[in-house]
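hi! just following up on the protien thing from before. the input was this:
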Amino acid sequence: CCCCCCCWKKKTAMTSSKPTSDKEYNAFRLAKFRFDKGSTVLVKPDGEDKDFVAKVNRIFTDKSATVLLDVTWYYRPEDTHQGRQWYHGEDELIFSNHKDTIPVSTVNAFCVVQSLEEFNASSEKPIAVEDGQGNTIYPPVFFSRTTYNVKTRKITPKLKNICVCKRPENPSKDMLMCESCQDWFHQECLEASELKDDTKGVWRCPRCTTTGKRALKRRKNK
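and the predicted 3d structure came back as:
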């Protein structure tokens, strides 16, 4: 299996079945920081370079009073069957249906996973979180817009193609919005002449200008 989460599970000998629980909790504390049920966390890797990311679904203790977490994993694009594609952003994760039970001691830190819309809106304003000791911390922020089925190896939904390249949006790339059609374009996909504003200082895409349409036709015929 190419998924690093699976490697972690094998190395720790944890099972995905739920142990008998004597008590459930709504939150747990680690280094005086509160983690609520439903939050997303960074999980310590075993021999890997990057932390794993998981959503906490359940917090409970087993018969030996060990605090455990039922989690659902986020995959990095390179850990899926399809691999990382051109349109995947640097901070992109893919939510999966891969569930595990892990010990709370493997949690490394708090993180935030947003929708693409939230991620784009907050890109210029870092998210601040109180650490329970009067200090403000800025956790890693990721975004997710698709879901990975580990059994069928399918990623859904199919992303909308944009730009002259007819590929999905890559939020890590510089983007331009056409003032006429309101469509978005990757700046690197446009030729230098297509990046210029008109005499009124308004940018229109190649599809919405006469000279742009001719340039697109020439490019298509090459």
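The radius of gyration is 22 Å.
The chain has three helices and 14 strands.
cheers
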